[in-house]
Amino acid sequence: MLNNRSTRGALLCIFSACLWGFTGTVGQFLFQQMGISSKWLASNRMLAAGILLLIYIYWRRGKEIFDIWKNKKDAKDMLLFSLIGMLFMQYGYFLAIGHEGMKKSL
């Protein structure tokens, strides 16, 4: 049987997958009905998520959140992950959704 920590992890995984699917639906609505671009949505979504995460981590850990910038290798890895791993992935995701929505509306 799963222990409490494993159950919580599994539920969080299922919840996050549902939210990921929901963002695609919301993104398609914003593209088609509101005329928002995928570039705007991806960048603003990442900015808002980053600010919320920084606020939460600062609340939990205080000024430790800035320790990553003290080590050059860690700072470089964080910047590469942020740009290549997150921004381009998010932009590509919303670009594909926007493109698919445009095909359906034609």
Low-confidence stretches: none
Sheet with the most strands?
A: none
Number of helical segments with 4 or more residues:
3
Please tell me how large the radius of gyration is.
17 Å
Number of strands: 0
Shape: globular
**Class inferred from helices and paired strands:** mainly alpha
Quaternary organisation of the protein chains: single chain
Proportion of helical residues: over 70%
- What series of H and E elements makes up the topology? HHH
How much beta, percentage-wise?
under 5%
Gap from first CA to last CA:
51 Å
Q: Kindly state the mean pLDDT as a whole number?
A: 82
Folded structure, characterized:
It contains three helices and no strands. With 106 residues, it is mostly helical. Helix 1 (4-33) crosses helix 3 (72-105) and helix 2 packs antiparallel against helix 3. The longest helix is centred in the C-terminal third of the chain and has 34 residues, at 72-105.
Short structural summary:
The protein is mostly helical and 106 residues long. The chain is built from three helices and no strands.
